[in-house]
Amino acid sequence: MNVDMARRFDTVTPGVRRVFYAYAVAAAVLTLGAVLHPGFASWTSLRAVLVVAAFTGFVAAGQMLVVLVGGIDLSIPWVLNGAAIVLTTTSLGQSSRLPMALAFALGVGALAGFANGMGVAWLGVPAVVMTLGMNGVLQGLSLGLSKGLTCASCGSYAPQPLRDLFTGGVAGVPAALLVWIGVALLMTVLLTLTTFGRRVYAVGVNSRAAFLSGVGVRGVTVALYTLSGVFAALAGIMLVGYGGQPSLGLGDPYLFESIAAVVVGGVSILGGRGHYLGVVAGSLTLVAVTTFLQAQRVPEYGRLMIYGLVILVILFAYGRDRSHD
Q1: What angle, 0 to 180 degrees and rounded to 10, lies between the N-to-C axes of helices 43-67 and 76-91?
Q2: 321 close to 299: Cβ distance less than 8 angstroms
Q3: 265, 115, 271: which is closest to 200 by C-alpha?
Q4: Where are the domains of the chain?
Q5: Domain 14-324 is in which class?
Q6: What is the mean pLDDT of the chain?
């Protein structure tokens, strides 16, 4: 019976197997934490893990889209930070100005992503160079807008309705988690049930063949980078709503975390393979590992080393799985 189940598992597509592996790792980390620290599995602890993982998951959604076509977005930190600062400096903490502030903040993300996509798709600038340059531009603009001060010093805060939304929830479920569920459904439908999703995978597998098949490769690439910017801006808006105000460097941790969540979630860094459900598991795994190590009171340098080793072990396992495909 076990042999038969193993044979059936081997017939599952590599992408689905990687999603299974990602969730298995997340479950293993959470189980280990529950065994060593009984409070680790409490709803309060799990709620905190899920909320923090949700923010990583928002950013990783955009990162996944560009990785699927063999790209990468290094402008995420200051797209996120810039959108957060634009939101607070535009709204000035006033509820009446919230709709306009939200539009401006999302517009910052869309405009930055669109510029990245145009540079990569139409000007032929390597994605690493284009997005890193955009990150520097947005950093300078953000510092100029905030005059190099924290937003507490500027007196800019998130409007109260936004703060109430993201510090509250529905039936005990955090609002950030509910939005993340919505993003997961949107990404799954977009990539698996639409013509656009099939074009994304086609471009990622072989952009030349996709072009010869009539796919607008440049248009798809621009759209994906634009969406990446929008997701980063959304994360910035939600972080401001959750924390009350932005701070300089707010988005810095999310560059590494977004890339790590994507690759741990089983998305091929070369493009053309991966599912957002795996990225959800990757986000949970990263946050669970960090939380577990903090509960163990592991020093910062030790956490960084173990964090990196866990990622490398998972990637090594994926590499062996791919070699057997």
Answers
A1: 110
A2: no
A3: 271
A4: 14-324
A5: mainly alpha
A6: 85
